[in-house]
Amino acid sequence: MKSLIVSATESEIAPFLSHFSFKNGSNYLNGNQVVVLITGVGMVATGFSMGYVLAKNSFDFALNVGIAGSFNERLALGEVVQVTDDCFAELGAMDGPLFISIDELGFGNAMVAPLRSKTLDGLLSLEKKMKGITVNCVHGSDQEISLIKERLCPDVETMEGAAFFYACNQVGLPSGQVRSISNYVERRDKSKWNIPLAIETLNERLINLYTAIR
Q: Is 165 helix (H, G, I), strand (E, B) or coil?
């Protein structure tokens, strides 16, 4: 089996890389080949990096991992979830105060769901299933947060997820997205964030997940 692990930053999966003595590149675990790809933050960096690696390699599945902000206050900081569908939340046009999605414009689909596989469904069976949105600018004002909740009803927010799913879908690659909650989406206040906890729990889950692959 050959899989691809994708993260925006190395720091988000540093404990996992250290645990298995992985490097950014091709590695082997329990006889299975694992490629680790650090893309950089955001949809453009993710899209380019994914296109480059997928043009040169084939995989059985790909997994996007990292931290996320939560709109859902029922999720605890440090809780690990699976994003089962994602959305290019800002792809569209403004008409005064109204947002017109790319779907309504007739130019494509903002929503993107991953291709599934029995292997991934089994590996990710324990995670809570959540709806994600992908943005270029994370939300930080009460008005924007209220509008995005009303329009899309998201659970979590990232800057890469939908681009990752899109790239995988374009080549018919099953994929999954696992995120750990580092903060709630609200007026920006870093004193309330817990990135170390989110990284710790994410990597514990990732280590357990890849230890179970045979």
A: helix
